[in-house]
Amino acid sequence: MKNHLFTNATIITMDDDGRIIEDGYLAVAGGRIEALGPMATLDYARYAAYEQIDCGTGYKRRVLLPGFIQTHTHTTQALGRGLADDVNLRVWTHERIWPYESSLTEEDAYVSATLSIAEMIRSGTTSFCEASGQKPDAIAHAVIDTGIKGVVCLSTMDIPGEFPDSMYLPTPKAMEENFSLVERWRGKHERVDACLNLLNLFNTSETLWKEFFTYSEQNDVLVQAHVAEALTEWEYTQAVYGKTPLRLVDSWGGLSPRLLAAHMVHVDDEELETVRRYDVKVQHLPAADLRIAGFAPIAKYLDAGVNVSMGTNSPPCNNRMNMMDEMWLAGLMHKAYHNDPTAVPARAVLRMATINGARALGREKQTGSLQAGKQADLIVLNLNKLVATPTHDLISTIVYQATSETVDTVMVNGKILMRGRELTTINEGWLVQEAERRAQAIVKRAGIRY
Ligand SMILES: [Zn+2]
């Protein structure tokens, strides 16, 4: 693997001190960040054999930033996006997405995941955690082939519902499938990991929550779940169990630092304190929340010191797999909700998209900030674009102003996955054709009408 030396860059480290190096260098060797600092301290001779990437060629220096970390995204739903716009939740699930998901082949899942990953790379994401996948081995292979980092999981429901039979797993089978997935992938490839999945509280049992919690604790494995997402879920758990979603999961012993709780919209102040106490990892999904869930109390979570990370969630309810867009929304929507233009400021948004994502995945010692010794998961932004002109406050420009067209280069574990906006590991022309062809075939096969 080539070693690289980035020079004349503005480096946003996202370290604990929020250090920004105005005119800096960053050396990458063996997939890790070897050194970084001001250009004035660079000993060129030491890096003579490294490939130099000069970030000082434009009017404004290019910006080095840790790659974005998406902690909740449904990569195998990508071929179904646009299939369920402007419909109610029942039509969304029963008539569109469940028929779509239950019709996926392994190859479809691979292409869908690759489409998601291609868009993630083009908008600066270097790691993701699957939200509830179909055919998780296919997702893992897409991760390996594309060069990104991914945590895969299997969409799991052990309470029968109105969804297709093929999506139901009896509790023992749900345990076996989830545990064997973790055992199949954990430690097998440097960029792949696996976690457990509990799709939602409508369709997962107390037994499964308890079993997963025990396994998660004993094996230090993450649990991905949708919690306190919809008002209908809040009404359902009250009616069936006499508890709110959060209190229900608490009563099952399901709250822990390894719980990746997606949405977390319908949470009162007392529950919020419980979330803080257990160090539950809250996942904010701005576009999807605007569409289906509502306003999560993100400002309150941040004030309480809860770790909030971000993701693009589901392609058929977002429909963009683009963290630059999610940051923009996260920076705006809470200001409207609280009628307070100071709520959830740009710096907090950038932390949610980077280092907080690493913390959520338990990988903050390895990635999520630019520090010597960490894995070289980073992006280069080119702000010499109309959309980023002028740049007054750098971080404000990135969050409120820049779009993904400013993402120039993406590196994961020291390997370049995009350079000059050209993907290096994915044939984009092939992918567009193959994804379109398969998406249309799935719709026909599943008999979806829209
Ligand atoms: Zn989701």
Global outline: globular
Low-pLDDT parts are: none
Radius of gyration: 21 Å
Which CATH-level-2 architecture of the largest domain? Alpha-Beta Barrel
* CATH homolog superfamily of the largest domain: Metal-dependent hydrolases
CATH fold topology of the largest domain: TIM Barrel
| Chain-averaged pLDDT | 97
CATH uppermost class of the largest domain? Alpha Beta
State the helical fraction: 25-40%
Which compounds are bound in this model? zinc ion
Overall description:
This protein is an alpha/beta fold. The chain folds into 2 domains: about 5-65 and about 365-425, Urease, subunit C, domain 1, CATH 2.30.40; about 70-360, Metal-dependent hydrolases (TIM Barrel), CATH 3.20.20.140. The mean pLDDT is about 95. It is built from 15 helices and 18 strands. It has helices at about 90-100, 105-120, 135-145, 170-185, 205-220, 230-240, 245-250, 270-280, 285-295, 300-305, 325-340, 345-355, 355-360, 395-400, 430-445, and strands spanning about 5-10, 20-30, 30-40, 50-55, 65, 70-75, 125-130, 150, 190-195, 195-200, 225, 260-265, 280-285, 310, 380, 405-410, 415-420, 420-425. Helix 2 crosses helix 3 (about 135-145). Strands 1, 2, 3, 4, 5, 15, 16, 17 and 18 form a 9-stranded mixed sheet that branches. A 5-stranded parallel sheet has the order 10-11-12-13-14. Strands 6-7-8-9 form a 4-stranded parallel sheet. The site of zinc ion (ZN) has 7 residues, from loops.
